[in-house]
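can u do me a favor
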């Protein structure tokens, strides 16, 4: 966005920040985008909540991908989760 933040409607700033949250969570935003999202997060509880969810996913993904993936154990975990959800 090339306009000053003060001239951009809050709805547009919110939309832009919410779109950038996944990249904010994984630390791959350009510095200018990072500043915009950080500024928006200071005043938007909804985006802070969404960011927390993205950060959880990022943490899980990093944990799952820190070791070679074992297809058989992954399938066993998936089937176990499906079985547990069917009995709820």
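np, heres the sequence
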């Amino acid at each position: 966005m090339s306009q000053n933040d003060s001239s951009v409607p809050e709805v547009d700033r919110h939309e832009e920040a919410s779109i950038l949250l996944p990249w904010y969570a994984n630390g791959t935003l350009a510095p200018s985008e990072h500043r915009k999202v950080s500024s928006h997060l200071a005043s938007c509880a909804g985006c802070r909540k969404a960011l927390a969810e993205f950060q959880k996913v990022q943490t899980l993904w990093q944990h799952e991908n820190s070791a070679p993936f074992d297809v058989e154990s992954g399938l066993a975990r998936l089937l176990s989760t499906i079985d547990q959800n069917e009995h709820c």
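The chain has one domain: 5-86. hope that helps!!
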